[in-house]
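Memo to structure team: turn this sequence into structure tokens by end of day. - J.P.
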Amino acid sequence: MVLSKRERVIRTLELEEPDKIPIHYLGFEVTGISNQYFKNSEEYKKIRAGIETDVLKMKFNVSLGITKSITELSFWNSDIHNIDPWGIKAFKLNYTKAPLEYPESIILTSDGRIFRPTPQVGTGLMYLWYQDGYFRTPEIVHEYWDKFGKPFDHINNKLNYSPQVWENFVGKLSKYLYPMATIPIGLHEALFDQIYSTLELLRMLRKK
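Reply from structure team:
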């Protein structure tokens, strides 16, 4: 029995046995040298040539270096991937200059994560290296949200979020993978970052 990619994913999520384990892979780091090799390879050209034109024209968002290339996802034979028809247009990730103790860095005003733009070795392309989580207290969170807006203030309500848009998107990609709707802020990542930063702060205070 060979399941479709959608059937395989749904069956797994429902804790039923699929025909094989679904593949979900974040792919090459887009700024890394391996991705540059892939994009210039014959394998890339061959796979790309087999993808329908309307699917190739679809714009997939790239978030903090995670690939959303349909050609690469076909290369990995992914069953599921976090992409949606709205992408980066749905939510504006605001950032500003990080606090002084983090030179040459930026802070995401929605979740307090701090990154430092650094050129990748081998490609020179800019990569955002994670530095720290800054939202360690409710006071800090509200200070930034009062100044730059709460996360829901940055939702683009001008887009059409109807089920029909999603179903059409799923249908177009059904041959390649089953899309998984994204969330603008990686809640678990932001939470892990803040917990780790708080524990580090407590450890330093105890040493003093």
